[in-house]
Design a protein that fits this description.
By secondary structure, the chain is α+β, with helices and mostly antiparallel strands. About 15% of the residues lie in helices and about 50% in strands. The chain has one helix and eight strands; from the N terminus they run H-E-E-E-E-E-E-E-E. The strands form two sheets. A four-stranded mixed β-sheet has the order 4-1-7-8, with no helix packed on it. Strands 3-2-5-6 form a four-stranded antiparallel β-sheet, with no helix packed on it.
Length: about 110
Amino acid sequence: MKHTITLLLTIAFVGSFWGQKKISISGNIPAAIGKKIYINSFKNNQMVALDSSVIDKKGKYKLSFSVSDPKDFYSLSLSKKNYALLILDSSTTESKLTFNAKTSLISKDYTIT
């Protein structure tokens, strides 16, 4: 009986990650060295932090997170008033984006590839 319960819990745990989509966002924001950058999703009209990173001395950062359905709105932010709204739509199991900004005002001057 113990082995059956252990097996069922293992299957449930592994199954919960089976449908997860891996998303990574990296980039360069040289005007925001030392600042923290966040990726957030929206659940029940609330922002939920998925990952954060400190922008290094070269202006580089990398964020990684997993979601069950990436077709949603996300915000990439340096503060509550300084953010870029992203809409991700991916049918693959892994997505990689590059988000670069020339200034620390990321909502105005950025490129995505």
